[in-house]
Automatic annotation (TrEMBL):
<comment type="similarity">
    <text>Belongs to the peptidase M1 family.</text>
</comment>
<dbReference type="InterPro" id="IPR045357">
    <property type="entry name" value="Aminopeptidase_N-like_N"/>
</dbReference>
<dbReference type="InterPro" id="IPR014782">
    <property type="entry name" value="Peptidase_M1_dom"/>
</dbReference>
<feature type="domain" description="Peptidase M1 alanyl aminopeptidase Ig-like fold">
    <location>
        <begin position="445"/>
        <end position="547"/>
    </location>
</feature>
<dbReference type="InterPro" id="IPR037144">
    <property type="entry name" value="Peptidase_M1_pepN_C_sf"/>
</dbReference>
<dbReference type="Pfam" id="PF11940">
    <property type="entry name" value="DUF3458"/>
</dbReference>
<keyword id="KW-0031">Aminopeptidase</keyword>
<dbReference type="InterPro" id="IPR012779">
    <property type="entry name" value="Peptidase_M1_pepN"/>
</dbReference>
<keyword id="KW-0479">Metal-binding</keyword>
<dbReference type="InterPro" id="IPR042097">
    <property type="entry name" value="Aminopeptidase_N-like_N_sf"/>
</dbReference>
<dbReference type="GO" id="GO:0016285">
    <property type="term" value="F:alanyl aminopeptidase activity"/>
</dbReference>
<dbReference type="Pfam" id="PF01433">
    <property type="entry name" value="Peptidase_M1"/>
</dbReference>
<keyword id="KW-0378">Hydrolase</keyword>
<dbReference type="InterPro" id="IPR035414">
    <property type="entry name" value="Peptidase_M1_pepN_Ig-like"/>
</dbReference>
<dbReference type="GO" id="GO:0008237">
    <property type="term" value="F:metallopeptidase activity"/>
</dbReference>
<dbReference type="InterPro" id="IPR038438">
    <property type="entry name" value="PepN_Ig-like_sf"/>
</dbReference>
<keyword id="KW-0482">Metalloprotease</keyword>
């Protein structure tokens, strides 16, 4: 039977709801018994059949109002109970199920991770535990009793507060939990295991004490401190900036090694991929530290935007995810560097979200049609969703935005809301008309803004002509005009002086409201021809087309006040350089490096000390996958060759300057502080170039040997691998010997191996599937070896003999059985076939067809393959 799609337009309020649920778990990895007592309430008079979701367990018994009951129908995904004879509006159900967590490789529902047992219920995992109205608009109070072996599982955790516990005579013990807050089933969590526990506390602004607990595998306590500090910073920030306070007396985080994504915001009991908890200087890079802090923050912020106010249906996912990403971005920006955070986010958006918009999976941030919900936890829903919130913030300003937030919370606390509820609150609290803006929620695709300008020297008038156009996407052919906030600045062409924006003598706001297909904006008293800085801070998720000359870009790079604009000018220069050389390469001409880019880079290096962090970012060459997004049809070989040419040329021309900076920016003992992180970033980007010079081998070798932290260790290892230095094999072997017992650290090593520039990289990857640290059932390992090869090594993955595609398809055939959710992530590079030449398309299509022919194709893969082959 073909999986069926669900449509947003078909939403109906449920006929029944569940007000209370009491769960009893008799836990054992091989045989767990769950008894669920549901208090059901009929909401629609006359509703006669209650359909509960559930699959992948043994259904053992059903009782209705205390008596055994058999008037039901059961299929592969549900149980439909005939309640036509019940005249009261309230009744009780008791359901017994049996499951096998140890065999559950899908890592959804109840499963074993290492020696522990845990749950993952979002989006629809609860129904793998027991029958339930498993939809986010059914909010119930939960009581959970867990019984298990005390020796194997000394900690038994669930949501809310611990209300009772006891020991049994047979060596088992039990704990009972009660969550006072109404919640949807996707926020339910249970964890059992033996852990080391880090404890702390937080006093909320109203003076309540909250116990903070972080559970990690035994032996990892020395890696939990950063996560705890991050949690406390998050709690404080949410009080300060959003006036939101934590509501329970306890907040727990458990780190597990087997996890399909980053983390999960279950009420009061977050479950985390250990990658986003564990850090110490020897094992985690600066980037890891920042990532951990932002994921901890993200999950914490969900307590309000997600848990207290949840989603009415899964089409509204961006209501909680877009908003919570926006909040975590703001948190990181407030604590660290706003421009650096913005640059990181924009890079992701351009490289991955823009690519999704031109893929078969294109969808609006509020999708219209879904087969498998897990396929919609996308960069579009998350990151573009956050951009949409950010645009609202730009249009309203901080003060009105916060008023809007307060109204949204006041109106929707304790309920399941929609994106419309949010926008409407923002609109009413601020008085800003968001009628046209709402289209961002329903229109997919990346808008293109074409800008041209004219300068009237005589009257000192400057005009910007702005046109918008959104190309058709796979899911939606017709497009409408959006409300696009376009933030601009003007600079003197010669002096680089900022020019005030005026119209008829009055100052103009620098955020232009682009509403129509064609619009002209006029500025007066512009005494010299200006250079426009367009889309400052990336004020909207659009592609901007303005015909910048390299001179104009260099002016912006040198003088713009907005750091994002300076960085973006450097990016555009790199992009222009790559484009020019790619067409040289494709027509068989010699490659050449432009004087202008050389001049710009010299300027950047000579001014490095003014802003070390921005310098590091400006010097960073876009990745192959970032360059690829400049083209409709991607030439993976050409891009790899030209990019390496650029790397080597920059290294040669600027060798002296790079080396001087490298030597001068050495840090003392490792510390996670902004100043040192910037220095390390700059020094390591210098090293990534210098590796390609005559200094490369000794510099890289010593860098590795002298490193007292993972940031520098990995920078050396990466430089050695990318530049294929003589010291490479020795360093890789040394690292492996030291860390082979530690999967998280080995992920870095697997990723380096998977992205080697060597011609035989696929062979290496294949043999590493048997490496002692590799584990096919661990999503982190799979992502760092298979995911990195397919997604980050385009030249080898798209090898013209089809070997990369065959490799991925073979892996996916296995994963289709064991973990379809991870399979559906890994297939992404294969479904983007329309971006490649005919020969590659044919090969990619063949791979997809092979998968389509599988007997038991999971709906996760089915949905993507169907779209790709369409
Ligand atoms: N809400 C979870 C993601 C769940 C993904 C389910 N496939 C983590 C987060 O966004 O915070
Ligand atoms: Zn989230």
């Amino acid at each position: 039977m073909q999986p069926k799609a669900k449509y947003r337009k078909d939403y109906r309020t449920p006929d029944f709801t569940i007000t209370d649920i009491s769960l009893d778990f008799q836990l054992d990895p091989d045989r767990t018994f769950v008894t669920s007592n549901l208090s059901v309430e009929r909401k629609t008079a006359g509703a006669s059949h209650l359909r509960l979701d559930g699959h992948s367990f043994d259904f053992l018994s059903l009782k209705l109002n205390g008596a055994s009951y058999s008037n039901f129908e059961k299929d592969d995904e549900s149980l439909t109970i005939d309640v036509s004879h019940i005249t009261e509006d309230k009744f009780e159900l008791q359901i017994e199920t049996g499951l096998n967590p140890a065999q559950n490789t899908s890592l959804q529902g109840l499963y074993q991770s290492g020696d522990g047992i845990c749950t993952q219920c979002e989006a629809e995992g609860f129904r793998q535990i027991t029958y339930m109205l498993d939809r986010p608009d059914v909010l119930a109070k939960y009581r959970t009793k867990i019984t298990a072996s005390k020796a194997k599982y000394p900690f038994l955790l669930s949501n809310g507060n611990r209300i009772a516990q006891g020991d049994l005579e047979d060596g088992r013990h039990w704990v009972e939990w009660e969550d006072p807050f109404f919640k949807p089933s996707y926020l339910f969590a249970l964890v059992a295991g033996d852990f080391d526990l880090l404890q702390d506390k937080f006093i909320t602004k109203s003076g309540r004490e909250v116990a903070l607990e972080i559970y990690v595998d035994r032996g990892n306590l020395d890696r939990a401190g950063w996560a705890m500090e991050s949690l406390k910073r998050s709690m404080k920030w949410d009080e300060d900036r959003f006036d939101l306070e934590y509501d329970l007396d306890i907040y727990m985080i458990v780190a597990v090694d087997f996890f399909n994504m980053g983390a999960m915001e279950n009420k009061g009991l977050n479950v985390f991929n250990s990658k986003f908890v564990l850090a110490k200087p020897e094992t985690a890079t600066d980037t890891d530290y920042l990532d951990i802090e932002s994921v901890i923050a993200h999950e914490y912020f969900h307590n309000w935007t997600g848990n207290r106010i949840t989603c009415r249906d899964w089409f509204q996912l961006s209501l909680k995810e877009g908003l919570t990403v926006f909040r975590d971005q703001e948190f990181t920006s407030d604590l660290w560097s706003r421009p650096a955070k913005r640059i990181e986010d924009v890079r992701l958006l351009r490289a991955v979200q823009f690519a999704e918009d031109v893929s078969p999976m294109a969808h609006p941030i509020r999708p219209e049609k879904v087969i498998e919900m897990n396929n919609f936890y996308t960069v579009t829903v998350y990151e573009k969703g956050a951009e949409v919130i950010r645009m609202i913030h730009t249009l309203l300003g901080e003060e009105k935005f916060q008023k809007g937030m307060q109204l949204y919370v006041a109106e929707n606390d304790g309920s399941a809301a929609t994106c419309e509820d949010f926008v409407s609150a923002m609109e009413r609290a601020s008085g800003v008309d968001l009628t046209q803006f709402r289209r961002w929620y329903s229109q997919s695709g990346t808008p293109e803004l074409s800008v041209s300008d004219e300068y009237d020297e005589m009257h000192h008038v400057y005009r910007l002509h702005v046109s918008q156009h959104t190309p058709a996407t796979a899911d939606q052919l017709e497009k409408v005009n959006l409300h696009i906030p376009l933030k601009i600045e003007l600079y003197g062409e010669q002096s680089g002086e900022p020019i005030a924006l005026q119209f008829e003598g009055t100052e103009q706001h620098n955020v232009l409201n682009v509403l129509q297909e064609h619009q002209t904006f006029e500025f007066h008293n512009v005494m010299h021809k200006p250079v426009p800085a367009l889309l400052c801070d990336f004020s909207a998720p659009v592609r901007l087309d303005y015909n910048y000359t390299n001179e104009q870009l260099i002016t912006l790079l040198k003088f713009a006040q907005n750091d994002f604009v300076r960085w973006d000018a450097a990016q555009t220069l790199f992009n222009n350089e790559l484009r020019a050389n790619l067409s040289r390469y494709q027509s068989g001409e010699a490659l050449a490096f432009s004087e202008e880019l050389t001049e710009a880079l010299i300027y950047v290096l000579d001014n490095a000390d003014k802003d070390v962090e921005l310098t590091a970012l400006m010097l960073t060459l876009p990745k192959e996958t970032e360059f690829a997004e400049l083209f409709k049809v991607i030439d993976p070989n050409g891009i790899a060759i030209v990019r390496e040419f650029m790397l080597k040329t920059i290294a040669e021309i600027l060798r002296g300057r790079l080396h001087e900076i490298y030597v001068r920016h050495k840090c003392g003992t490792y510390q996670v502080v902004a100043e040192d992180m910037s220095k390390r970033a700059l020094r390591n980007v210098c090293l990534s170039y210098l590796a390609f010079t005559d200094l490369g081998n000794s510099l890289t070798y010593n860098h590795y040997k002298q490193a007292d932290n993972m940031t520098d260790t990995l920078a050396a290892l990466s430089a050695a691998t990318k530049a294929q230095l003589p010291c490479r094999d020795q360093l890789l072997a040394d690292f492996e010997e030291k860390w082979h017992h530690d999967g998280l650290v080995m992920d870095k090593w697997f990723m380096l191996q998977a992205t080697r520039p060597d011609d035989n990289v696929l062979e290496i990857v294949q043999s590493l599937l048997n490496h002692r640290s590799f584990n096919f059932n661990n999503p982190n390992r799979l992502r760092s070896l298979v995911g990195a090869f397919c997604g980050q090594t385009p030249k080898a993955f798209h090898a013209i003999d089809g070997s990369g595609y065959r490799f991925l398809v073979d892996i996916l055939i296995k994963l289709n059985e064991t973990n379809p959710q991870v399979a559906a992530r890994l297939i992404e590079p294969l479904i983007k076939l329309s971006r490649y030449d005919n020969q590659r398309q044919t090969l990619m299509r063949r791979g997809l067809e092979r998968l389509k022919g599988l007997d038991n194709l999971a709906r996760d893969l089915f949905e993507k393959i169907e779209k790709a082959l369409h």
